[in-house]
Amino acid sequence: MKNRIKTLTLLLVLVMAGFTSCDYLDIYPGDSPEVQDAFLDRQTSERYLMTCYSGIPYYGDVLALPITGCDEILYTSNDIQFTYYGTYPAPYLAGYGGQMNPSSPKMNYWQGTGGASVSLWTYIRHCNLFIDRMPLEAGGPVGIEAAERLQWIAEAKALKAFYHYYLLKCYGPIPIMDELIGTNVSMSELDIYREPVDEVVDYICETIDEALPNLVDHGEVNPIIDYGRVTKVAALAIKAKTLVWAASPLLNGNPDYDLKDKRGEQLFAREYDAQKWTKAKEALKDVIDLATEDNISLYMSDGSSIKGSEVSQETKYRLGVREAVTAHWNNEVIWAHYEDGGARGLQNWAMPRYEGVKSNSRAVGQRQAAPMHIAEQFYTANGVPIDKDIDWINNGWYAERYNYVTVSEASKKDAKAGEKTARLNLNRSHRFYSSLGFDRGYWEGLGRKEVDFKILKSIAGEVSGAVGVQSINATGYYTKKVCAVNNVFTNEADGTGFKHEPYAFPVIRLADILLMYAEALNECRNEGESADETIAILDQVRERSGILGVREAWGNHTNISDYDTQSNLRNIIRQERMNELAFEGARYWDIRRWKTAINFMNKPVQGWNVMEDERDEYYKVITRLRPTFSFRNYLMPIPESTLLRNPNLVQNPGW
User: Fold this and answer.
1) What confidence tens digit (pLDDT) does each residue in 462-486 have?
2) Count of alpha carbons within 13 Å of 280, Cβ hemisphere only?
3) What is the DSSP string of 227-279?
4) CB 446 within 8 A of CB 40
5) Which of 33, 116, 369, 567 has the greatest number of C-beta atoms within 10 Å?
6) Residues 6+ apart with CB under 8 A from 43
7) What is the DSSP code (8-state) at residue 23?
8) Residue 178 backbone phi and psi in degrees, to 5
9) Residue-by-residue DSSP string for 356-403
10) What confidence category does residue 12 fall into, taking pLDDT thresholds of 50, 70 and 90?
């Protein structure tokens, strides 16, 4: 590894006082009393390790990447929340708002500004300081068992690798910040360079490999006090996901990126390398094998979150993927992050008023809206896309999908019989109902028995619809998936006392890894090789939500016979990820690494005409937004102020 860059560390007293660095170059103060005090004993040392953890960006927060940064979420300017009380979330402005620029970048994890709560370089420095000072021979604290000391150092190494991985996703080639140096550094050493993507990837993987022997197994973690700390399987997952990024189209032979620095160093690989997918495949298999040993498995709902003893299999399927996210530290979680009081803000913005609640209650936001193209992306009840399902085509359902119909007894599991809703909302996969709320559709849970599930009434003026100028869902589709099953209003008649069930938001769960493994298997296929292994992985994930296997679904319910070619299966895998991981933030990163964001983020964003109080007018599809996205948006800009301070850094293409 060449040009292994050294990092410089802040005065601990400034860190403890809440000082935020304006950049990543600050001088390490050697043996200052403040640094010595941080490693006096076990308690102060563990507290500093928690400082290393505190740089993890929020995953389940509307104000942070990645949930609100792409085309899964739409807000409306009709909602006074955004026009009077404040503004749209910064990641939303950077994505749909098109307000990213190099002079004052949104979600600036390089410097910790523009909506980003932290500079990730600051926390890399914290990790390096911890790694440097924790060993006993370096003056580290006494009274700590050798194995525990090594474990803590390994955790700091894994966190350092994770922060590099996150910056890689944001910026592509980045400096590698690996060591501490003191105050006698020459000024020339401060002018660091960005390193080529492949070297950054190698560094992240090597750092994880160094940490692995001393990290604890998943089953050894104390669920009361230690969940959220990096385990072996979590570290392996970070490594595997890094290798997937390295193998994906954005970074693997991307013709759009021809960037050299002042050394003449090519920062992006110019030639596609199929071996990168092989490395990713092997790393993902390692994660899956270790997860199996650690009893990590796909979460299957038993219906116990629903009041009463009789819960149908349909409801269990519809709870499965939702509870895989919202059931606190469930058996599918590889790594999670407890934040914002257990995803309080996210749940409040997503949660609607429901039948029986005072219609003009402001206790919940119900402004987290899914665009029409997200509602259309979920499968039919037959487990295939709505425009490929021969039942949908032959029965005219696809052509009439925007018309409203009376819900029949045959469809009473999908929406309330006798009520009227869009044809689009009926005969869909269980994942559709897990993930989305809609007009006249059920909202499972709420502390009620299955026979008493409440419905949403979303036409303007109704309980779940637009009332006045606040709490307006922009499209008529609510992101049910991120709301815990038994969130309730303690006083429904007055619409007050909203109480959310807190949960740790999954950073990595098993379904994510399995679907990446299917992707890697498919990319590694040679001409003429069977797709059986890839399809078996897809079917494993689909089965949890009661979705037909790929061969049965595509073979019996479409007219497409060559669905299992590499290119066709690639599209199936991508749609599978977008459906399974909807509203969890995965889409933000996936459509970037696949180089498909330019397709998704340039389409007109549509929804129902939610400000109308007549059904005939409500059920008209209108365009809410016309976003723009260009190739430069795949990577964030390096802040201009940083480039001015260090002329050795070069800007990302297009900025």
Assistant:
1) 999 998 778 899 999 999 999 999 9
2) 27
3) TTS--HHHHHHHHHHHHHHHHSTTTBS-TT---B-TT--B-SB-S--THHHHH
4) no
5) 369
6) none
7) S
8) -120, -25
9) TS-TT--SS----B--HHHHHHS-BTTSS-TTT-HHHHHTTTTTTTTS
10) very low
Q: Burial code of 269-306, b = ≥16 C-beta within 10 A, e = fewer?
A: beeeeeebbebbbebbebbbebbeebebebbbbebebb
The residues, ordered by sequence, that sit 6+ positions from 629 with a Cβ below 8 Å of its Cβ are: 98, 597, 598, 601, 602
CB 144: neighbour CB atoms within 10 A?
Answer: 18
Give pTM, 2 decimals.
Answer: 0.94
For 308, residues 6+ apart whose C-beta sits below 8 A from its C-beta are 449, 450, 451
Helix axes 586-593, 566-580, angle to 10 degrees: 160
Which residues in 5-72 belong to E strands, given as ranges? 5-7
Task: Return the structure tokens found at 352.
Answer: 């609607």
pLDDT in tens, 61-75: 998 889 999 999 999
pLDDT tens track for 96-124: 888 999 999 999 999 999 999 899 999 99
User: Does residue 66 have a cis peptide bond before it, meaning omega lies within 30 degrees of 0?
Assistant: yes
Minimal CA–CA distance to 589: which of 59, 70, 58?
70
Supply the pLDDT for residue 521: 98
Rounded Cα distance between 447 and 357, Å, is 14
* Angle (CA) 463 469 470, round 5°: 65
Residue 11 has pLDDT above 50, yes or no: no
By the 8 A CB rule, do 136 and 149 touch? yes
pLDDT band at 191 (very low <50, low <70, confident <90, very high): confident
CB neighbours of 85 closer than 8 A, spacing ≥ 6?
none
Place of tokens 């850094």: 649
Q: Which two tokens stand for residue 469?
A: 């100028």
User: Containing H/E element for 498?
Assistant: strand 496-499
Quick check: 622 and 609 in contact, CB under 8 A?
Answer: yes
Paired tokens of 512: 């994510």
Q: Specify the pairing of strand 177-180 against strand 333-337.
A: unpaired
Q: How far is CA 542 from the centre of its chain?
A: 20
